[in-house]
Amino acid sequence: xxxxxxxxxxxxxxxxxxxxxxxxxxxxxxxxxxxxxxxxxxxxxxxxxxxxxxxxxxxxxxxxxxxxxxxxxxxxxxxxxxxxxxxxxxxxxxxxxxxxxxxxxxxxxxxxxxxxxxxxxxxxxxxxxxxxxxxxxxxxxxxxxxxxxxxxxxxxxxxxxxxxxxxxxxxxxxxxxxxxxxxxxxxxxxxxxxxxxxxxxxxxxxxxxxxxx
Length: 213
Prior knowledge:
The chain is α/β, with parallel strands linked by helices.
């Protein structure tokens, strides 16, 4: 993985994912193609169905983005976390009339070494392959699973490939299965629109359930 990072970033390993997204959102950028159009509808349909089938009351999303994907999903109690303070401010304003939704910045000051709260479901949608730094990646996965007491949904690619300065695909599943034994993979759902073109994605759904002790 370090070789992949060097291949993309060259000699420097100073790329900061949080800074990248803050600058992108602050300049008017969006969460990207996957949060709009038929890909967003596909994800929303899957998650809404999961929420109903499993009687999910509370959810925490690690990487809520600009809120477009969120607006399509029927959460009863939702906490959105994101590394960008600009987008958290934007989401608070966008959903200010919706008491079921709250938002907080996801950073070391507010989250390191502690769990804000636990929920029935935690989610990571199109986030893992945007985390370049190895330490941040490992902490992110630990926080994601620690914050759930029932289910975790990850929507991501699952192969190693360096793509751009802000896209580093990772085979995350083997890492989770080795390092987070308290959760078990229970289901995988393939993308309805696989591919590399516009409104296509190589990301799929991976569902984990907490192992009863």
